[in-house]
Every structure is written in C-alpha cells, then in structure tokens.
Write a structure and sequence with these properties.
The protein is mainly β. The chain is built from five helices and 58 strands. The longest helix is centred in the N-terminal third of the chain and has 16 residues.
Length: about 900
C-alpha cells in the first residue's frame, strides 16, 4: 500500500486473507449429515485432506481464474486470490494516486448531515463457542470463546493500560488490564492499524495502514503519537512529520538514538522522537525507481517493490542497524541490509549463520530483542518454501547474541507441530500462513522466555531449545475435546482464536501478563502461566467482552424473530463465521464458521438463513442452525445444508461472490459466478443441483453484483478483473432464462471502466435501477476509461445510464439501497451517504468513524436501516432520520 501524496502509484498491496479454517463441504456431505466426525465437516476436510496443489508463490496479481485446491479457500493460493480480488475492486483499471482516501474523508466530512444517530447493535459479547449453535458447519466448541474483529497490533504498560489496534476499527484502550474498552482514534481519517508502540517516555505511537498483506486491509494516513495515552485520544494534529507516509502501510515502529524507525510498504523511514515536526527521512528503499514519482512509479506491481518488514537496532550503538526487507511472495531485492563503512546500505550475504540471506528464503521477518540486549530472536518466512512446500512457508525461528549474528535456528515447522500443535496434518502445518501470521516478543524479566505467534501461540522458556503450543489453533483434534453443549469445549481449556498478529507484555495490579492479538481479538494470560500435560495453557482469558466491537462484516441480514419477537440480525464476517443475534440475546452466537460472505435472511422468519462461505459455497438453515451436536452420532439431525451452485466446484466465482433474493419473491434467489444462477425453492432448497444456469457471462468473466425484482435480473461482471486488461460489463435478463442480453458499455462511456459493485432496484419499477461503482475517479486513477462518478441511474432497464453522483465524495462505493420513501442510501468505504427523493445533492448519514460500510439492508417493516461495517460491527439508524 503506497506512500506520499500527490504522486501516482498502487493504492493497496492487500494480498492475503486469513480464513478461520473451516473448509468447503465435500460432496459427500452435501445433504447435511453424512459424516460422523466429531466436528464440522469443513473442519475435518481441512485437517485430513491431502492438498493436491502447491500453495504456490503468488504474483502480485494472480489470475482470477486460478483453480482452488478443494480446501474451501483456506490454502495460501486461494486466500491470496481472495485478497487480490478485494484490492481489484478499489484499484482497477490501473494505479491510484496516494492520498485518495484522505481527500475522500475530507470531502465526506464536509457534507451536510442528515442528523440522526447510528446505534451499534453488535456491541455485546460474541461467543464463538455458543452451545446453542453446534450444527455441522459451526466452529462452536473449538475453544476461542468470545471474539471480535482482527487485531493487528498491541501495546501495554505496567500500570494496567492496554492498547489494541484493530484492522479496520481503530485503536482501543483498556485501563483494567484488558476489557472495558474505549475507542481512542475515531477522529483519524484511517481506522486501519499497522503498528502500536510505547516509547521510553510513555508516549503511544500509532502507525496506520495494516501491513499483514491480507485481503481486506486499508491504507493508512501516516504515523501519530499520543503524549498522554492514559487519558487522551488521537487527533489529526498529532500526526508525526508531513504526508510522506500517507497511503502506506506500517508494519513496525522501532526506537533508538532519539529516532523512530518505520518499516513501511515504501521502504524504511526515520524521524526524530524529540521534534515531531519536519519531514520523515527515507533511510532505504530497495527499488527507489518504483516509488511514487520515480521513473517506474506508475507501472503495474510497483507497490510490491519496496516492502520492508522490520528493523533491528543495536541498543549499545544505534548506528548499527539491520533492515529486514522483502515481499512475502519473493523478489530479487528480498534480504537483510546494513550500512557499510561508507554509510551505504548493503545487502548482507554472509556471517548470519543459520538465518538465510539469499532472496529466495527471506520473506516476511519479525525481530525481537531481550530487554537487557543479551539475546535477539527472529522469525523468517521463506518465499521459496511457500512456493514448494504445501505444509508450511516457515523457514524457522532463530536466536543470536547480536542482531548481526551468527544466528542459530531454534525451531522449524516440524518441531512446532510436534510440540502440542493442533496443525499436524499434511497441507496445513505451523507457519502455513507465516506471511500473514507473525509476532515475537521476549519476557522483559527473562531473555530466554520467548513468545512466538504464527497460526498458533508458542512459548519457550529456554531460549528456543524446547517449545510448547500454549495457544493451539483450536481444540477439535485433542482427546480432551467434546461437542457436549453443557461444556464450552469439552474438558479442554480455552485457547485463543487462530492467526496471530500482535503481542505485548504488561502488568496489572503488579502481575505480569502477555497479551496476544489475532483474527478473533485480544486474549491474555499470566506471562509465567500454567500448562497441562500437552503444553497447552490452562489460563487464557478472552478480553473481547463486547465493549470492543471491531467485527468485520461483509454482509447483514434481518428477519422477524418468530420465537422471541422483534428481529433476528445475522451477518457474514472475516474469519469469524456468521453471527446471529436473536431479539432476546445478551450474547451473540456463531452458527456458521470460517469466513462469512454474503447473507440472505427471510424477512418473515429470521431463522431462515442462507450464508455464503467463499467462492459461492452456500449453506442454508431453517432453524438459525440451532443444534446440540447430536448430528455427530445421527446424521439425520443436521439442520444445515450445502447448496452451492456449480461455479463453486469449478472455481468460477469470486472469493466473496454476489447472492441476492428477488425483491418481490423471497423464494427466487440469484447467485453470480461465471454463470447467473437461479433457484426458486427459497430456503427449502436442499441441493446445489436445484440451481439453474440462466446465463453464461463468458469464459474469464465473473459476477461482481446481482439484483432482481419481479423476475427482472441485473448482473455486473469483470474479467480480467485486475489492472492488466481490466474489463467490466452489465448483463440483463429474466429469472426464467429469457431475454438475456449484454449492455453496451464502451471503455470511455458514461459508466466508468471500473469495478461495478452493486445495484439498487426501485421497488415500484424494475426498469428503474441505480448502479454503484467502486474505485476512484480518473482524478486519482491512472487506467483506461477510469472516468468519473460513483452512482449512476437508468430508467430503461439498464440500456442507458446517467451519472447522478453530483457532490458525492470520490470514494469507493460498495452498495446502494432504495428506501421506502424513494430516497437512495449508498454505502462507501468511509460511511453512508443519502440522496432525498426529488433532490440531486448528497448528505452524510449520521457520523460514523472512517470505516468501510460494505452492505445496507432494511428491517422487515422498512423503518430501520442496517449497515454492515467492515471493522466496527453492525449499526442501525431510523429511516426517518435520513430525511
């Protein structure tokens, strides 16, 4: 993800999503209960199946048509593809100038407001082990307990203050050693966290822009500092330096010699910690020609040419610095660099001992130093191993007396797998996602006491000679596990959520704790905690108490709760499955596991739910997936069913593929992959064979949006979907298969040549439709036909279009919805806007932080608008307040 402003380049380097591990249901389980494994079918598939393809070293833009491995989107190649697709929507057809989001936020903030107040409806505990929901596709009883959205970075002090930086929901503070959280960065134009660090003066530094190269990361707006983190909050006035780090990602912040060093997507930068004004200094960029403003700054893939990961500094001599540099999928510039006698940054080629220095084996790297400087540790992910070894991309964990080596390997993936890991099956072993999951820290009181995070949490008390998996991926494959709903996780102790990113050690009431951040939020245990005979910790505590809502929704569904009254609210989440909130709940439950994509919910019955996993792997339930796990011994008691259309099996659907119900007939569903699929059995569908292909969008084309009303269907597609020959189109026809035709959309026509993300059909007239367009206009985008505008209107069934964007900020637009009064609500990457009926100008709806809103839905009575945010949960506002 790029850097400075007013210069052109890639908008984002998003490239890998972390999926929780539940995998696509095999065909044998399509009817919902044919497997007697003591845990979910997709879980079994992940743990037991041999991978048939290499995970592969992914290029910055993998082919959209690359085949999946049959593991439901969990392998490194598929999730890299999913990440590329999230980025494509915001970058294609070309490269985007840095500063685009900052300009959009300023524009949005200056819009007149509709008034009204958003209400968070998911700000309560979300129990991933809720015993009510133990159906065949649930992760419940895995042991993660209460969860929230992905945490990218953590910091903690010795006064009980803990700071959690989320992927898309900003920074949060706890004054009680965790829990009782308050947001402290809502005023910033970026809510994406890359790094958090406390300096020697107790100031809290925030590097915005998540650098985990995952599917749904957002750009940052620079580095900020909070001088009184116990009481204050971040503001735009607290930004360090100028705009040099705007539109970058920041992976690490390190301090030494009166300077702060930042490892970013645009090289390594430094700034004085004493004077916060003045420009950042570019210390090193391996390929400066590819930086914004450079001779190659506009070429495709330039955003991958200056990735830096960490900095190791000798505390005794701050002039001695080592830079860990490199793109996770491999490049000639990957390696370790230090200054030679002439002050020139030079690649290290020897003297490092076991730690590789060749470009093929240096990828994502994390350093850690003991408090007394006596020991250093490092994790290294190898691009070559990731390409050749389907089991793991981890080269190893290393230790040395000096950052300059020689380094000794103290662990590899096989050793970690043998030390109590839950990941012991071929194709998914420790470090298989080491490009995405990494943390490393040393106990301040003991230089030999180390915590390492990959997919799991590992602990060594002897400098790496031996390890324990104190935070296993889950408890499913251990003898202590049971699906018994009377117990959270059988006789196993709670573990953490999978996929580790952040770590910190601090004290509360005089006791030292280690805090870990992962795809499920924040967890805590005593630094010297207890373990069982398998080496698993017995004392993890989830700190996701509901006061911290950073849940990353792709979708939302709302239906009447026929049991308790009111409504039932559900939604698909990044790596946290599908949440379900009944009207009488004080705790949300999770009725489907893995990644939750699009959602259909019956307005008349909120327990009729269709949930998309990835690549159109659709599951349905007609009882909210309430199940006590009895399907394990009696397959007929499963109440969830796999009903994926055929494009799922052929890999001809996008990672998060469009799914919609006809606005006039809730039994008619539309799904989009290469084909437009229709089924007319509603929630009574039981097999994927009940879908009928009504139109073939063409080889290499995949649907990006579908909508239907009264049998009239609109479908948008792209293909190729990246900047290399990007093409888009609209096809229109009928649900019965008649009347299908392609709409002529010239590259330089009224509708921009950008990603088409959503339709909103007028409920009074199916020929009256609005189109939402993602990405940025040509002011920011260098690409053929990027055009201008984000909302377009057709009154003739899509044949012709008119730009109705008017004063709408130039911001990626994700979906639209026609309200009962005829007004139009639009979801963007920075909030919700509204155009009143009969008006042409746009207003900002309420006041949300700078968070992406990916989908809007109405309550069954049409009086309440629901917004699925990707980082701050689900919000509602009364429709009347939009006027």
């Amino acid at each position: 993800m790029p850097a400075p402003t007013r210069r052109r380049r890639w908008l984002t380097i998003c490239a890998i999503t972390a999926t929780s591990g539940l995998l696509a249901i095999p065909a044998s389980a399509a009817s919902g209960g044919g497997n007697s494994s003591p845990f979910g079918v997709r879980t079994l598939n992940q743990l037991a199946s041999q991978r048939t393809h290499s995970v592969g070293s992914m290029s910055p833009k993998a082919k959209a048509s690359s085949a999946k491995d049959g593991d439901g989107g969990e392998g490194a190649d598929e999730i890299a593809e999913g990440a590329d697709q999230f980025a494509e929507a915001r970058t294609s057809p070309g490269v985007v100038a840095p500063g685009a989001y900052g300009a959009a936020w300023n524009s949005l903030s200056n819009l007149p407001s509709t008034g009204g107040t958003w209400r968070n409806v998911t700000n309560l505990p979300y129990n991933s082990d809720d015993p009510r929901y133990r159906d065949i596709d649930s992760n419940s009883s895995g042991g993660s307990g209460n969860v929230t959205g992905r945490m990218a970075a953590l910091a903690a002090d010795d006064d009980g203050y803990v700071y959690a930086g989320s992927a898309g929901g900003g920074v949060w503070r706890s004054r009680r050693g965790g829990g009782h959280w308050k947001p402290i960065s809502d005023k910033l134009p970026s809510q994406s966290t890359g790094a958090l660090a406390l300096d020697g003066d107790g100031r809290l530094w925030l590097g915005t822009g998540e650098a985990n190269t995952n599917a749904d990361a957002y750009l940052g707006s620079g580095v900020y500092v909070l001088s009184d983190p116990h009481h204050g909050s971040f503001s735009t006035r607290s930004r360090v330096g100028g705009d040099e780090l705007e539109s970058t990602t920041v992976r690490q912040l390190r301090f030494a010699g009166g300077k702060v060093w930042a490892a970013t997507s645009e090289g390594v930068w430094s700034h004085s910690t004493r004077t916060l004004k003045g420009h950042w200094k570019l210390e090193f960029a391996p390929n400066p020609d590819y930086l914004p403003g450079g001779s190659k700054g506009n070429v495709a893939g330039s955003a991958y040419k200056n990735i830096t990961n960490d900095i190791a500094i000798d505390p005794k001599d701050p002039s001695k610095v080592i830079l860990a540099v490199g793109w996770r999928s491999g490049d000639d510039y990957n390696g370790f660099y230090t200054k030679d006698a002439k002050g020139t940054w030079t690649r290290i080629t020897s003297g490092f001992g076991d730690l590789p220095t060749d470009a093929a084996n240096v990828g994502t790297v994390t350093f850690a130093r003991a408090a007394d400087g006596s020991r250093y540790y490092a994790i290294d992910q190898s691009p070559a191993q990731m390409a050749a070894n389907p089991d793991s991309g981890l080269m190893g964990i290393y230790s040395a007396a000096s950052p300059f080596g020689p380094w000794t390997k103290v662990a590899d993936y096989k050793q970690l797998a043998a030390d109590g890991s839950a990941l012991t099956s071929s194709g998914y072993m420790p470090g298989v996602q080491a490009w995405y999951n990494q943390f490393l820290t040393v106990d301040p009181a003991d230089p030999k006491h180390v915590y390492a995070g990959l997919e799991e949490v590992y602990e060594s008390k002897d400098g790496g000679s031996t390890w324990s998996t104190v935070g296993p991926y889950w408890n499913f494959n251990f003898s202590c596990w049971s699906i018994d709903p009377a117990k959270q996780t059988g006789d196993c102790n709670q573990t953490t959520h999978s996929d580790q990113h952040g770590v910190a050690i601090g004290s509360y009431h005089g006791k030292s704790f280690v805090y870990v951040g992962n795809d499920g939020g924040v967890y805590r245990r005593p630094v010297s905690g207890s373990q069982d005979a398998s080496g698993h910790a017995t004392d993890w505590t989830s700190l996701n108490d509901g006061t911290i809502d950073t849940l990353q929704y792709y979708s939302v569904g709302v239906g009447k709760d026929l049991t308790y009254g009111g409504v039932s609210v559900t939604g698909g989440l990044q790596d946290n499955g599908q949440s379900v909130l009944r009207s009488n709940d004080t705790v949300m439950g999770s009725n489907f596991g893995g990644d939750g994509g699009d959602t259909l919910t019956d307005p008349a019955n909120g327990c009729n739910i269709a949930e998309e996993y990835v690549y159109l792997a659709v599951q349905i339930t007609q009882n909210c997936a309430v199940n006590d796990g009895s399907w394990v011994s009696d397959a007929t008691k499963a109440t969830s069913y796999n009903v994926a259309p055929a494009d799922n099996a052929t890999s001809e659907a996008r990672f998060i593929a469009p799914l919609a119900a006809d606005a006039k007939d809730s039994n008619t569903w539309i799904a989009g992959g290469r084909h437009i699929w229709v089924q007319t059995h509603g929630y009574a569908i039981r097999s994927g064979s009940e879908w009928k292909s009504v139109y073939d969008l063409g080889a290499g084309h995949t649907a990006t949006a579908v909508a239907a009303s009264g049998g009239k269907v609109y479908a948008a597609w792209c293909g190729p979907c990246n900047e290399q020959g990007f093409a888009r189109g609209i096809s229109v026809g009928n649900a019965d298969g008649t009347g299908w035709h392609d709409i002529a959309l010239p590259v330089n026509g009224t509708v921009p040549n950008r990603y088409l993300s959503g339709f909103a059909i007028d409920p009074k007239n199916a020929n009256h439709v609005f189109l939402a367009v993602n990405g940025f206009s040509r002011h920011w985008t260098e690409g053929p036909g990027a055009g201008v505008g984000h909302v377009f209107e057709s009154t003739d069934g899509g044949t012709t279009w008119k730009d109705v964007s008017a004063n709408l900020p130039d911001v990626p637009t994700d979906s639209a919805l026609v309200l009962p009064n005829g007004g139009l609500a639009v979801a963007t990457d920075l909030g919700v806007v509204y155009r009143a009926p009969g008006h042409t100008r746009w207003q900002r709806v309420g006041s949300l932080p700078a968070v992406g809103v990916l989908q809007l839905k109405l309550s069954p009575d049409g009086r309440t608008l629901y917004a699925a945010t990707h980082g701050r949960g689900i919000y509602t506002i009364k429709v009347r307040d939009c006027d």
